[in-house]
UniProtKB/TrEMBL annotation:
The keyword Signal applies. CDD domains: LolA. InterPro entries: LolA/LolB/LppX (IPR029046), OM_lipoprot_carrier_LolA-like (IPR004564). Pfam families: LolA_3. Keywords: Signal. This is Uncharacterized protein. It comes from Pandoraea vervacti. It comes from the Bacteria.
Length: 227
């Protein structure tokens, strides 16, 4: 899979998918879809309500635990960090362990920063990855079910207070990398599981989620670096 279709998905969820990309989960796969799956009207209606609820949070801050399993790994790889999602600005994705890393996925470009908040590098121009992040972030935050349904078969169960959504690629290019994406949550996303065509599974658990805390000065400065 080339640069044009690396992953993207709802504000802080799409940061999770970007993290999977950084781990190499989406390179060089050639899976084919025998027949494109479809979504029912009921599933789409529930997802639309869920997206409307999740998208109401202009700023989301959370801690995350990422667990990656693979046939090539003897034991799961655990990564911990924090994220900040701002619906009009992008995502700050900060890994604290096992090795510190910091990225800002903004509306126009991506920037890398150090533990003190100093910007280390920026994209010279908006990349295909940045474009895809913005496209899917917009779909989630503005409740654009039709945009997602054109690329995924969607199965949604539960209620808006406790829901699960399973996204299965219906486009061959996306299916080259992703086998299935499963989300659970309530008024925010609580867990995400990405299954790849390589047999890897990457799970994100989001804890200490805050939806009423405004951006601080450091966070605003980092977002400006990715404008």
């Amino acid at each position: 899979m080339g640069q044009r279709l690396r992953s993207r998905i709802h504000g802080w969820l799409l940061s999770a998918v970007v993290a999977a990309v950084a781990l190499g989960a989406t390179h060089g796969l050639h899976a084919q879809i025998a027949s494109a799956p479809t979504s029912s009207a009921a599933d789409l209606a529930l997802l639309e309500r869920v997206l409307s609820q999740v998208g109401a949070n202009a700023v989301v801050k959370a801690e995350f635990i990422q667990t990656r399993t693979s046939p090539l790994l003897a034991t799961p790889v655990i990564t911990r960090g924090t994220l900040v999602f701002a619906s009009e600005l992008g995502v700050i994705w900060q890994v604290s362990a096992p090795q510190w890393q910091g990225y800002v996925y903004g509306r126009q470009r991506t920037a890398r920063f150090d533990a003190d908040g100093n910007v280390l590098s920026r994209e010279a121009q908006p990349s295909a990855l940045t474009h895809q992040i913005n496209e899917w972030a917009s779909a989630f935050t503005h409740g654009d079910v039709s945009g997602l349904a054109s690329q995924f078969a969607i199965s949604a169960t539960g209620t808006t207070s406790r829901w699960q959504a399973v996204l299965t690629p219906s486009q061959p290019q996306i299916a080259q990398a992703m086998r299935r994406l499963t989300l659970t949550g309530d008024n925010v996303v609580r867990t995400v599981v990405l299954e790849t065509q390589r047999g890897e599974s990457i799970r994100w658990q989001f804890d200490k989620v805050k939806t009423s805390e405004p951006l601080n000065a450091r966070e605003r400065r980092l977002f400006r670096a990715a404008e």
